[in-house]
Specification:
Order of helices and strands: EHEHEHEHHHH
Number of helices: 7
Mean pLDDT: 91
Strand content: 5-15%
Radius of gyration: 17 Å
Helix content: 40-55%
Strand order of the largest sheet: 2-1-3-4
């Protein structure tokens, strides 16, 4: 896989730690990418928005994770209008956000396709494993196009709704591991 550039925006910053941990796992497994992530609080003035828009201009993939529609992303219009013709754009709406859903339909590359749905689920389900697999999937999209055939990427994994928690583990351990 060729290296690619991802520009990621998060309105809430809740998934940034999972993106970071997923990026570490991605590079450990041989993946190569440059990731630029920003949050709503970091885009506090026109100069920051303009600098972020310049990153978008040169990106292979852009993800905008909203939480409250257009208002949750300062400079939304400037940012999406900077995406290049070959840039794969994904707008991630949050649940029940009609404005975000409309923006996703209007601005996302391949809205409603298998690729869009996969990216949506990777982000929605969250966690380092899903972000690792998201990065491999996005690398495949950047190299082969928006509807990759046989990408070989692991599908998104829904989060468990119950299990054993321990702060020293970054996953849900089985009982034998937990009690050691």
């Amino acid at each position: 896989m060729k290296p690619f550039t991802l520009v990621y925006y998060s309105a809430t910053s809740m998934e940034i730690s999972s993106l970071s941990a997923g990026f570490d796992r991605f590079t450990e497994a041989g993946g190569r990418a440059e990731v630029h992530a920003r949050t709503q609080t970091q885009l506090f003035d026109t100069s920051r928005i303009k600098a972020f828009a310049e990153l978008v201009r040169t990106a292979d993939v852009v993800i905008i994770s909203l939480h409250g529609g257009r208002d949750s992303c300062p400079g939304f219009d400037d940012i999406v209008n900077c995406s290049g013709e070959k840039t794969w754009v994904h707008v991630q709406p949050s649940g029940g956000d009609e404005d975000g859903a409309e923006l996703a339909e209007r601005w996302s590359t391949g809205f409603g396709t298998v690729s869009w749905d996969m990216v949506y689920k990777y982000i929605h389900y969250g966690g380092p494993l899903n972000f690792r697999n998201l990065l491999f999937f996005l690398g495949h999209i950047a190299e082969h196009g928006s509807e990759p055939d046989n990408s070989g990427c692991e599908p998104p994994v829904p989060p468990p709704h119950e299990g054993i928690y321990h702060p020293d583990f970054d996953c849900l351990p089985d009982p034998e591991t937990y009690f050691r």
